Amino acid sequence: MINEKMEKAFNDQINAELYSEYLYLSMKAYFETLNLKGFVNWMDVQVQEEHAHAMGMFDYVNSRGGRVKLTAIDAPETDWESPLAVFEHILTHEELVTSLINKLADVAEEVKDRAAMGFLNWYIKEQVEEEDNVGQVLATLRLIGNDKNALLALDKELATRTFVAPVIG
Ligand code: OFO
């Protein structure tokens, strides 16, 4: 049976992951307005990944005899100045999520929930990957500057990203 404090911390993180899903969906809508379909695709993969992150915890709480309690999801931003501004926002956001996952792991340690500690290792590694993926696109966007052809080339590249359902835990 899951500890009450641990259960609450997981529920908070489920909300944060669903907020991430919502944020990327909003960014997808923004890129639709620019007709940059590769960026739209990249966001779509991100939306699916965030959903999987939330559901991984949803299923885990249930498997430990806990109770998932969903709460209101904050409204995400809807407008950005440029694709670069979007990716700067994403990096800041993912760094925040990394700190939230680390705090969740701290709770697991505090309540001596070894099973949860093991489970959360997957998320800790995933955050390294998330920040790296975003950082790579961000670095390219910084190089691109105002070069429209280079932006379209990047858009083509981002169109190739595909979603692979993660095996969590
Ligand atoms: Fe769930 O990793 Fe991004 O937010």
Instruction: Indicate the mean pLDDT.
Output: 98
Order of secondary-structure elements: HHHHH
Q: What's the story with the biggest beta sheet?
A: none
Percent of residues in helices:
over 70%
By secondary-structure content and strand pairing, the structural class works out as mainly alpha
The hetero molecules present are:
hydroxy diiron-OXO moiety
CATH architecture grouping: Up-down Bundle
Shape: elongated
Tally of contiguous helical segments: 5
Describe this structure in words.
- It contains five helices and no strands.
- The protein has a single domain (4-70, 80-158), classed as Up-down Bundle (Ferritin), CATH 1.20.1260.
- By secondary structure, it is mainly alpha-helical.
- The model has no long low-confidence stretch (mean pLDDT 98).
- The protein has helices at residues 4-34, 37-63, 83-110, 114-144, 148-158.
- The longest helix is centred in the first third of the chain and has 31 residues, at 4-34.
- The structure holds hydroxy diiron-OXO moiety.
- Hydroxy diiron-OXO moiety is lined by residues 17, 20, 50, 53, 94, 97, 130.
